[in-house]
User: What shape does this take?
Amino acid sequence: MKKINLRLFITALVAVITISACEKKAPELSVIEVTLATSAAFDGVAIGNIPVEITNTIDNTKKTVLTNQAGVAIFEDIAPSTYNISASKELTAEIAFNYTGFNKAITINANLQNIAVMPLQTIRQTLTLDGKAGGDLVIKEVYSLGAANDGYAIMFKDQFFEIFNNSDETQYLDKLYIAYLSPSKAGQGSTDVPLGLPLTSFVYASKILQFPGTGTQYPLEPGMGAVIAINAINYKELKPLALTVDNSTAQFDTYAITWLQSLGRTGNSFFDVDNPNVPNMNCIYLNIQNNGFFNMDDYASIALVKSGPVFTETIKDPTITTSEVFYMKIPVSEIIDGVDILAKSSSAAFKRLPAVIDSGFTYAQENGSANYTGKSLRRKVAKTLASGRKVLQDSNNSSNDFEVVAPATPRSYNLN
Assistant: This one.
């Protein structure tokens, strides 16, 4: 009997110890409470029943909760980490007209990045939904990563981006600007530092190009794209790999050497090659004094900008102390379209565009390290009309609007 009682006692003791150990290992979970609001421009838009998403920046797991009628979404049992928070609401053309004056459906968005959640906390955050009517011209594709790490023969020389007419009317590219946005580092390396400048009124460009033309020289028909190549060369002839790109039929290319020489500066003839059969983009700003050219950063955020402004105001990079690096200030109000391309899923702190232009960001690989993979970021198709014309997704949130493709696909959505 004593042996039986002792055995029962030991069994019970082990059970208690096991339970106690499990209790000690139980995660110290927290709560995130998100309240939605709207900007003054969209005052009166209903904020109930809107999906709010949180993304764990460490493991990229996501969770979505709908707001109640007061615009509040509560996330319970949240593990300590850092989180990105986002929300979006689609407005029909009829409703959007009351706020924008344009009879065109739009999506209003909001986001917060890198919200730290500590154990056993209730974190309260407010997201303010805002947006603008989608542009008739959109950035369709950005190919900046290159296809061949081949001892300088190609590398990233076959970069291009493409502008697409997403409307049902002819648009003109004449005198529009393209801005390459800063900082050049986008969260790939452990020593990368966010720029830290406010994005409310301005974005900051390291390089600016302008389409040539006098106003109506370069039409772009509905459902058609125009490719702007860094070098309008057929790189498939030089390096016949599956991922390299033939840019010889690009509508425009970049060439900076003559312009730089006119300013008493030097270019880079190894990377900057002119195709005399392809119109050059006009060079407007390049923050590299010598040996520069208009390649994109590996993880390239770019903006399409209206033709009106003249850019003259620069700002010094506050994160660089060993030298002086300047960026041109671009008013957010002048941006037609933009896409934030960062290094990886945890790079939200490096956003170069405000939420009103791009409330999210996109990337080629979750963990970065996508150089020379041939991967390209391409806008998704929202619908295909009976005529065959594709209408591209434009919610002003590149996290949703873009997809990764390889190889790159210049003019892949064109009607003919």
